[in-house]
Amino acid sequence: MSEAPDWTRLPDLACRAVGGSVAWANDELFAERENLIRKPEPEYRTYTFGHKGQVYDGWETRRRRELGEDHAIVRLGLPGVIQGVVVDTAFFKGNYPPFASVEATAAKGYPAPDELTDWETVVPKSPLGGDRKHYFEVSADRRYTHVRLTIYPDGGVARLRVFGRPVVDPDLIVPDALDLAALENGASITGCSDMFYGSPANLIAPGQAALMGEGWETARRRDDGNDWVEVELAAPGVIRLAELDTSHFKGNAPGWASIRGRNARTGAEFDVLPRTRLQPDTRHRFRIDQDVETTHARLDIYPDGGMARLRLFGGLTSDGLRVITQRYQDFS
């Protein structure tokens, strides 16, 4: 498959940027396992040699002289339901593995790699080519916390992407105080006016943006309109505090912003934050004085520009807690 499937627009559950980690690999002599989950696309610099040969932006094992295969275990930064996997052999042309498979498991707590059990195959042993992305749709319908990449018999893989939908464990949240717009809690982007310079999904990603490219930024408008993005909250809740973060956006932050809430069940729409002036490169926090159940929130920026993060802190309603709990049970 040459064109990226629709599921690649979902969050990468394994990425280092959302807290993923390559917990173990049986071999990484030529290139470190941590490269597998780096967010940037792989790079290659010709004639860049270290003590072990050409330096590759990926995971590369030594040449096997006996039967067997190589493995790497990734702890997902966002446990969830896997929709698809990308095995990218970019720049590995004469040293890529001819086959690979992916297994997954669900674990409670924080087990060591050798304590993980009950692996289930989500991508069967499949042929690979060199210097290309391989797309594998996954039909497993349950929540996973770890994946194991196996390459046969050895070689190099630049990136492993694990796309899916995060599913939070209700035992690990405080229902009365959480970020209702957080990707890690199950929120998602349902629409936006423009994403020329950056994905709106960055707005609800974990952690703080380290640079401007980790936020959402639109093209410059040449009309009388304004840009917007809509978030489906993790579950129905009441918003108590809004954070609009323009960090790193110094000459291209919006001049103003507003937030409009919606309850999809009743159809009601209401103001959460009126049109408010923003400053560049600043984390703005606003107390929200309302007590309305909200399922969706629309952020409008005026007229255009970039935002690093959007946080909507509050509490789940009784229905919201039921939704979070049922979602976890459905995929466990």
TrEMBL record:
It comes from the Bacteria. Pfam families: Allantoicase. One of its GO terms (molecular function) is allantoicase activity. Its EC number is 3.5.3.4. Pathway: Nitrogen metabolism; (S)-allantoin degradation; (S)-ureidoglycolate from allantoate (aminidohydrolase route): step 1/1. Keywords: Hydrolase, Purine metabolism. Residues 19-166, 186-315 form the Allantoicase domain. One of its GO terms (biological process) is purine nucleobase metabolic process. It catalyses: allantoate + H2O = (S)-ureidoglycolate + urea. InterPro entries: Allantoicase, Allantoicase_dom, Galactose-bd-like_sf. Belongs to the allantoicase family. This is Probable allantoicase. It comes from Saccharothrix ecbatanensis. The gene is alc.
